[in-house]
User: Fold this.
Amino acid sequence: MAKQDRAIRTRQTILTAAAKVFEERGYQAATIAEILNTAGVTKGALYFHFESKEQLAQGVLHEQDQQTPIPARTCKLQELADEVLLHAYRLQHDPMVRAAVRLTMDQHAQGLDRTGPFLHWSRICRHLLETARSQGELLPHVNPTITADVIVGTFAGIQSMSQTLTDYRDLTQRTTALLQHLLPSITHPSILATLDLTEQRGHHIHNETRNHHPQPAPTP
Amino acid sequence: MAKQDRAIRTRQTILTAAAKVFEERGYQAATIAEILNTAGVTKGALYFHFESKEQLAQGVLHEQDQQTPIPARTCKLQELADEVLLHAYRLQHDPMVRAAVRLTMDQHAQGLDRTGPFLHWSRICRHLLETARSQGELLPHVNPTITADVIVGTFAGIQSMSQTLTDYRDLTQRTTALLQHLLPSITHPSILATLDLTEQRGHHIHNETRNHHPQPAPTP
Assistant:
């Protein structure tokens, strides 16, 4: 294995271990010692990649932005719905995404800047809404910045409620219900009628994405 | 002071202290010793009212259900919007409500059942939606149970995003935007046109409630 490949693998091993420890303990109680122990790497290897607990957490938070992008759709509101539905599917199935979302929602993570994921997802949604608007998909009163923030904030709460009540088992149903409640206020009935917001869609997009860009399966 | 009054005051002193400590430390890291210290009461007094840390947390969670009810409205969707807007106002101004919401959202509170507030608010919303339906305020496809859960889950996320990005400064704006995005999918345009969803409404209802039921101001 080339030196660089090994470094990438080590970094991934450390991030996987950090995700596990942060998810189990929360940011505040997690220690670098426990992450080291879980990762089974040397202290030197860990500090080569990450200087502090905060950098480790930012690494985990950043991982959810590194996912394979979803295929572009002609209808930008469908693409927006796809982003949300795929994220819900990933939350159910990918421990790294789950750890990143829990860190984002961890109010007691002192010293950890958790604004990044909210702002990152708002930008993605706003961009899609602006394109949707230029294509005539939006009702005239819609403000893409405000609607983008509503989508990101509401999904954050829906996933939190699903995690608390059913450990994410009903997350795809709740996500479909969310979109069915938000989209009628921003688009035309004729466009609504063409959208696929069904619960299975996240899984289908996940398969579609993997077939286009083969990648290792996430750790079970 | 009668013995019973004193007991009620002591209980309130303990809950106020517990709210403060839980909000600062999170459930997991909070200790009964620190709550005792903050409350300035005897161990005996605390254990007379609360047997454990979980009971203290449930006491704080339960406090948000003890608020003065909002005045009934002829239009039940206005009453529903009022519940949400007043809750947003209280979150900005009442430390006990803030502590209760943070505990509800504290994913790392091991051993603490956090389902209560979600289910309690869902029931309140569902009941209002069922009455709204019987009065012909809802579009025919609306399922009160699903919509109630969407309202509760989405508000949970909106407040979380507002807290993370602006420490609740923009919460009333975000709450208005949330309602403007949800209500068009459940009611008729002619009813929408009569609703007051403005940012100041939470504050007005708060004053209205206090004038009807005088009560001590919340701790600043």
Q: What stands out?
A: Chain B has eleven helices and no strands.
